[in-house]
Amino acid sequence: MLKLRSIVLVFFSSVVLFACGGGSDEQVVNVYTHRHYEADNELYKKFTDETGIEVNVINANADELIQRLESEGANSPADILITVDGGRLNRAMDKGLLQPVQSETLDQNIPEQFREPSGHWYGMTYRARIIVHSKDRLPAGQILNYEDLADPKWKGKILVRSSEHVYNQSLTASLILADGEEKAAAWAKGLVANFARSPKGNDRDQVKAIAAGEGDIAIVNSYYIGLMLHSENEEEKKAAEGITLVFPNQENRGTHINISAAGVTRHAPNKENAVRFLEFLSGAHAQEVFAGTNYEYPANPAIPFPGLLQSWGDFKKDTASISLIGRNNEKAVLLMEAAGWK
Ligand SMILES: [Fe+2]
Asked: How many angstroms does the Cα of residue 84 sit away from the middle of ligand 1?
């Protein structure tokens, strides 16, 4: 009787597998991703060329993807969830939407700092949230720390995108962790008081606004500067050439970084393919593409920084845990709201 039941189970699970393979034995991996970069599509193609596994991609922001995973439940076709912020992956994990995976390759390629201890998610790249300022209008060395941005002497000078964006929420959470809630709240107020304009646009728009003379100082993710310097759009290129990069807090805790990370979903119908996909993303080729064409820092320490990142120099990174930053997200959002950061 017991034997019969297990045969029936095996039968059913192979039916499920077939159903998820699109009714044929075609191999697939279904990816829900918040990443929005051209380089990724090239990588997916390369993965298919190497393994014969088709990559199906659904693009949306992390909150939407998490909601979708929740409502799809056990019927979800998703195998992989990728976000551009570690905190979001933690949230997905807390909701039981991810499963731990064990892989020697992943353990070898991704340092502990960048992965969830039991394997629920793995950081593939990291990015620095840096300060940039006009080369012409501001001499180097005036701004060293994030904290400096609250100094009233920068009144009317600072450009930054909305507080609704997770990049700013994580930065603020890192200040809560470093300086405490009270000081972080005062910092946010001081920062808002120095705004050159009401927050609008994305990170690139802040750099363009420096070029247009709307303000002198901006907060942006490092890879956007790389993308702008290599842009076919002359205006973007010129804007990026006109700024000085500051990796803040080098004399103390280090520059705030965040990761772009990926995990295998709880009900992944193609788990083996999903693990292979993660291993591929952590390997030399994908890591070189992330660093060489999207100007993110490779999470895999065996990969040397390409030219541009090397020219920016090595820098001290804030070692605050990415998951702890995620756990302070709500506090950060409230604090930014209270400061009037739109
Ligand atoms: Fe981005």
From this structure: 7
